[in-house]
């Protein structure tokens, strides 16, 4: 069947490339002008029936294949392994360094591979579906699979790369994998499928998703709010294979060469090795021979039988990619059989992505994940869909309440979810600061706290997340006040709050820069220091401290609680009395100032606002600092609101109800200065305005 948008010109161009034939060569063979062939290739014209028959004869295909734009029936015979030659300068890579950034552990694989799938969500209104399939094959099935893989071409390279005289870690792992291949009749395949993902789009060799995953190292092909930023996560697929071998089948969200389905390629990561007098760099690719690139293997559009023989048949045509890990293993030794590996995958999918799997009555989850185990085509462990409410009941209740808008400000029942906020200050980017733009951003992250029961395995835990709600950090909240209820807390930052406003996007990028390759912490990184102005590390520390303080405030038992007399509570208290998180009135948090050409002070003022039902109405006062005595004030020539406030006709500031911070600008009136501005310093204070001031 001809796929939509797969034109005759695209088909002809591909056939010419496969046979290393130029347009001029074809024109000579057909006795037509080169311009005529060019018109066919570019789609400006199509050949007559007699020319179609002549084209079929030249290309060695059936005329029906030309009419239907089918690849040559002999395409399977054009598949081969291409082994990259060694560097001419004698340099050697004794393994892919990216695979050593993580442990070859199924828990890490589940985290990194699923995160990559989430980052590639195609339709934002539908969940990404990720399916892990463990399949143990033996006997005739194993033999047919290895034949389809051209194992006879690979085996000599494995033996050379596993040479014990090299005494390299990668070689020892390969030697063990080859030994098990020969000693055992079984071979374990682990397939990771995603649906409603973009798939490996783009050309074979130039920029795009395909090249980033298949051809390149440290190329994440991601930006902005995506989870990964190092391009390392994909390496866990190859690290999870004792043979360093992964086969790929991708269904594309946008066509390449006019097609979308069954784009296939294989990649093998070996160390440098010497075979039959030739040195090889290590990496190898399985695909269609590209004569225009000295026999390099490129992707090919596989027929259904080849897809089936390589155990890469997808369950639907939805866009996405299937990665088949050949010789899968768990390097920690924790999981050594199907039952153990199945259980470990389910556990760690739940541990890292439970929040992305939460749905409501009005919305679908971001992610659906499942694990199935088979043996020789027979299901031995039924598909197990990961249920977040089973694995993380308290935290799942908290996130669902937030998504449904049923959180409370103070708990009165054990199943209540308290919602609060914690401010994250985002310093300016260095590149903006160099242009004179030094504006800070303030982002209100969402904090959720809910009571849990004493049977919870780990009480009083805080998990933090951003973006697509993958768990980033997980830690215990210490110094909880005596008598507090047992709890679980969730911090949603950046886009995880559901906001696409500039402050959320700024927080998203800031936190992404603070994550190491494992994406399991928010801390000072080289990327953070290189990207943001001074103070970035302090802002992270403040964010962490303020989050813990706010949790302690929420879970502290109110005075007068019936659980015990208040005086006894005071005697038993093991932590110092908590200071209020905010004063009882708005305070100036940060001031930036400079002088104008005419000698006026111009200031930008950030204000911290305590929680209050009614709006705050305050008067900003500009005072000149003196060494002794009172600080005289000056008048404002102009006041301007920037964030969460308005300037009233009386010159006061009306702050937005429910806001936790605000920003305004002011320019002083030079005629009211008690001294020249160049000889002074100033301070800003806020006083309560009269309630009837407008």
How would you describe what is shown here?
The protein is an alpha+beta fold. Helix content is 28%, strand content 27%. It has 20 helices and 26 strands. Strands 1, 2, 3, 4, 5, 6, 7, 8, 9, 10, 11 and 12 form a twelve-stranded mixed β-sheet that branches. It has a five-stranded mixed β-sheet with strand order 13-14-17-15-16, sandwiched between helices. A hairpin with a 7-residue loop joins strand 20 and strand 21. The N terminus is likely disordered.
Summarize this structure briefly.
The chain is 28% helix and 27% strand. The chain is of the alpha+beta class and 694 residues long. The protein starts with 7 loop residues before the first helix and ends in a 6-residue tail after the last strand.
Topology record:
Blueprint lengths: L7 H11 L4 H8 L3 H9 L6 H11 L3 H6 L10 E7 L20 H14 L8 E11 H10 L2 H11 L7 H15 L2 E10 L13 H6 L20 H5 L1 E11 L11 E6 L4 E3 L2 E13 L5 E3 L1 E2 L2 H6 L10 E9 L9 H16 L13 E9 L2 E8 L2 H4 L1 H12 L12 E10 L3 H5 L6 E11 L9 E6 L3 E7 L10 E6 L9 H12 L12 H6 L4 H20 L10 H7 L14 E9 L5 E8 L8 E9 L7 E2 L1 E8 L1 E3 L5 E3 L5 E8 L12 E8 L6
Parallel strand pairs: 2-11, 15-17
Antiparallel strand pairs: 1-7, 2-3, 3-10, 4-5, 4-10, 5-7, 5-9, 6-7, 7-8, 11-12, 13-14, 14-17, 15-16, 18-19, 19-25, 20-21, 20-24, 20-26, 22-25, 23-24
Helix pairs in contact: 1-3, 2-3, 6-13
Question: What attributes does this structure have?
Answer:
694 residues; alpha+beta; 12-stranded mixed sheet; 20 helices; 27% strand; globular; disordered N terminus
């Amino acid at each position: 069947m001809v796929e939509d948008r797969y034109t005759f010109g695209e088909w002809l161009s591909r056939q010419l490339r496969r046979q290393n034939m130029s347009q001029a060569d074809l024109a000579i063979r057909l006795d037509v002008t080169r311009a005529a062939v060019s018109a066919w290739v570019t789609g400006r014209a199509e050949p007559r029936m007699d020319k179609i028959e002549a084209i079929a004869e030249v290309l060695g295909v059936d005329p029906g294949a030309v009419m239907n734009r089918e690849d040559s029936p002999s395409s399977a015979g054009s598949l081969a392994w291409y082994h990259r030659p060694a560097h001419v300068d004698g340099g050697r890579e004794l393994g892919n360094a990216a695979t050593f950034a993580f442990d070859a552990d199924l828990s890490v694989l589940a985290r990194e591979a699923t995160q990559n799938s989430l980052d590639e969500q195609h339709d934002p209104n539908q969940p990404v579906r990720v399916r892990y399939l463990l399949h143990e094959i033996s006997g005739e099935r194993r033999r047919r699979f290895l034949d389809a893989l051209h194992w006879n071409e690979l085996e000599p390279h494995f033996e050379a790369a596993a040479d014990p005289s090299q005494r390299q870690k990668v070689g020892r792992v390969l030697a063990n994998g080859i030994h098990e291949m020969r000693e055992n009749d079984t071979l374990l395949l682990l397939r990771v499928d995603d649906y409603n993902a973009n798939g490996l789009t783009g050309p074979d060799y130039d920029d795009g998703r395909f090249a980033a995953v298949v051809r390149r190292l440290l190329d994440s092909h991601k930006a902005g709010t995506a989870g990964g930023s190092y391009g390392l996560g994909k390496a866990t697929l190859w690290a999870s294979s004792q043979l360093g071998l992964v086969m790929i089948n991708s269904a594309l969200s946008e066509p390449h060469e006019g097609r979308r389905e069954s784009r296939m390629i294989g990649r093998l990561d070996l160390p440098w090795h010497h075979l039959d007098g030739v040195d090889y760099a290590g990496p190898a690719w399985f695909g269609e021979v590209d004569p225009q690139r000295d026999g390099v293997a490129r992707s090919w559009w596989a027929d259904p039988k080849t897809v089936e023989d390589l155990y890469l048949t997808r369950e639907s045509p939805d866009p996405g990619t299937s990665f088949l890990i050949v010789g899968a293993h768990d390097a920690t030794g924790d999981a050594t059989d199907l039952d153990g590996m199945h259980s470990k995958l389910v556990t760690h999918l739940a541990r890292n992505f439970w929040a992305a799997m939460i749905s409501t009555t009005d919305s679908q989850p971001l992610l659906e994940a499942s694990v199935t185990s088979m043996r020789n085509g027979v299901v031995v462990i039924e598909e197990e869909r990961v249920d977040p409410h089973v694995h993380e009941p308290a935290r799942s209740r908290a996130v669902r309440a937030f998504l449904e808008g049923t959180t409370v400000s103070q708990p009165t029942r054990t199943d209540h979810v308290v919602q609060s906020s914690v401010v994250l200050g985002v310093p300016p980017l260095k590149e903006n600061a160099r242009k004179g733009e030094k504006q800070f951003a303030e982002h209100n992250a969402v904090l959720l706290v809910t009571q849990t029961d004493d049977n919870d395995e780990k009480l009083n835990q805080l998990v933090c997340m951003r973006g697509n709600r993958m768990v980033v950090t997980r830690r215990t909240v210490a110094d909880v006040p005596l008598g507090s209820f047992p709890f679980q807390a969730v911090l949603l930052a950046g886009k995880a709050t559901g906001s696409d406003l500039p402050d959320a996007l700024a927080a998203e990028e800031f936190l992404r820069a603070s994550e190491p390759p494992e994406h399991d912490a928010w801390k000072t990184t080289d990327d953070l220091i290189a990207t943001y102005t001074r103070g970035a590390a302090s802002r992270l520390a403040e964010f962490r401290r303020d989050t813990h303080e706010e949790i302690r405030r929420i879970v502290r038992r109110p005075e007068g609680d019936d659980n015990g007399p208040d005086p006894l509570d005071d005697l038993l208290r093991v932590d110092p009395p908590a200071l209020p998180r905010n004063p009882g009135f708005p305070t100036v948090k940060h001031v930036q100032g400079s002088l104008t050409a005419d000698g006026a002070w111009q200031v930008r003022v950030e204000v911290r606002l305590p929680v209050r039902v009614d709006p705050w109405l305050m008067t900003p006062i500009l005072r000149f600092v003196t060494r002794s005595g009172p600080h005289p004030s000056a008048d404002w020539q102009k006041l301007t609101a920037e964030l969460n406030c308005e300037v009233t006709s009386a010159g006061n500031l009306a702050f937005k109800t429910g806001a936790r911070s605000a920003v305004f600008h002011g320019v002083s009136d030079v005629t009211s200065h008690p001294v020249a501005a160049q000889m002074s310093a100033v301070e800003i204070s806020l006083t309560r305005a009269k309630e009837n001031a407008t």
